[in-house]
Amino acid sequence: MIYLPLPYNKDKVSEKLKQKKYDDLFLRGRGRLDDLIAFLYQTGILALFDSIKSPMERKPEIPRQFLHYCLCLKPAVEAASVNQLPSRLFQDTDTLRELGFTIEEIKEGFSVKNKEGENIPVNINAFYDELERLPETETKKFFQGGVVLLKDTRFLRKKEGVYALDAVKLLITGTKKYENFGKVTYRKNGEMIKEKGYKLVFIQKVDGDDYFVVAAVLLPLNVHESTVAETLVEEALAILGDGAINILLFDRGFLSGPFFDFLEDKKIHFVCPTRDDQHLTRHMQGLHRTGEEVKTTLKDGTILSGYDHLIKMESCQRKINGVLILKQTKKARKQVTDGKEFGFLTSLPTSYASQIERVYTLYSRRWKIETNGNRELKRRWYLNNFPSRSWNGICAHAFFTLFMFNALTAYKGGKGRALTEKGIISLRLKHFKPFRHQEEVLGVLSGGYVATYSLEEFAGLFDLPPPSGEYRNYRWGRLPDGNLALFPFGKKSLLGD
Asked: What pLDDT does residue 332 have?
């Protein structure tokens, strides 16, 4: 079979249409954004935006939901900043209609202050004002509501799972003044490093292919992450239920006897790296010298040793077990030298070779929070691109981003794909590649050329009169029997309720 690429030429196709000649018509896909909106609607995620309470003293002209939708969709449409929303989202009128806004609102704007053709549908300053207005408690409650919904709809499974606890730095550059930031100074490779900004501390699921963030808090950079560890675990369990977290993985920044005891009270096992200056590390090294250990060699040549019931750790009541790494074969990993062996502290048993290997393998899952959490949130979700310098605005940015991160994690998962593969939109997306013009939804083939048109533009070429506008404030919806119908905007049905 030979494929002939057709050049895009709107002038030539339009000439043919004026002569009432064309070869074929097709609906074109607009990317997967419309599919995502349909998914958010079907799952009830979109309805959660109604729960956000914006503290406005006067009645706003602009629907708050519109601002909140756009702020959450910002990273999904690859907008690194609020200033990019007009080109990345506002031009896609079909998606805005799917979010519930009428053509009149989208084309003419929400505010009477808007000049014709400018600041449509809103002035971007409205986003900055709203970010500063929303209190931290409100946006965090919105994020938590999303986690609750994912659990209730079984995207986030209730069974015991493996989770990781970590902190990511969100640094400030330049001289602009930000609220509630912190400063730290430390030495690295003989050089003094000065940093300012914030840190996001969060708990993320790291078993399976789902990477839902289930609890999070934003802190000034100079506040240590260990101070909120217990609070975050409490918040996660309040949503997921007791016993939902079976194993918690974390780095040595959270290592402390009281935290170990806290996890025992919650019946949560843990795995944490050792510290070089810790007496438990030296104790395991001594046991290794005397041969009082259980050794195992993995298939890749890594050699491990396990120790049950180590000597008591300071300020810790529970029994601590340990694993030492005696040899690592992968060059990318830290290499071991005699007398300076390192490893892990754990509450899991280490009496048998299989148990020792399990502890070592489990901790490697913590890298998922580095790649699917820290790096992805900063590089692909623009978490470090602050749209506001106020504390409220920075918190809103963080929690809106995490909310959408979870929603897209659900959307990409097996259950999410099953939902989105129903309906004509998905069939279009599988068979037609999008063109570059966002608002044009009809493709036309004529005379060896291809072009795309809006439906109004296409009708105009056939000398049809312009639309009366009588139904501009209506949108599609479903009747109780499941059939499609036009609904007046703002009403749930045409049946009087």
From this structure: 62
